[in-house]
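EI: anyone free to look at a 206-residue chain?
SC: sure, send it
EI:
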Amino acid sequence: MSRVSDQVHTVRRIVVFFDICSSTTILEDLLRTENQRRWRNLLIGLKKFLVSESQQSPFDIYKFLGDGWILLFDPSRITGPQLMRLLKRLCDEYARLFHNGICEVLGGDGYQIGLTFGIDSGTLVKIVMNQRDEYVGRALNVAARLQGAIKQKDKTPAGKLLISKNSFAALSLAQTPRYSGKLVDRLLRNVAGGEHYQVQKIVICK
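SC: here you go
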């Protein structure tokens, strides 16, 4: 007889994987100049923003990855344009935090400042490990690979996202000219069929 904990619990989610563009370069400079607290404050500011937004447009702040997050959305509770507007607000908040807390201590120009996004959707297996919810599924891997592939053939990736074709269609983004995007070909490593993976590229903020 199987226990409740042995049962497979699946959920369908939109996975948004986002990262701070060129954060390694920025963090190196901050650490070298002993301004680590400024970077910490920026990350805390982003977290507070996400918590506030999640209370208005419910989503799960699933995991923090050092300089980015994985967000999980219930597709029955958010539309494509609503999701895009949320990501635009997130970009704007990052720009505000960066301008107010980081710019003055960085010497010179040349920083690719902004956020980059990868989006996929699908069924995830939900499990409990160490008393917290964890998820396993292809959509997590694809979203992460899409975010990492934004810099391919693009010297100014900040403020842009790659979204899988099935997610683009499911969110009806083609019906909104502002988010209709452009079909591009990218290499996604460690993804089945990823040698020439066609995705939609959308500019969230310029």
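EI: The chain is about 35% helix and 30% strand.
SC: 👍
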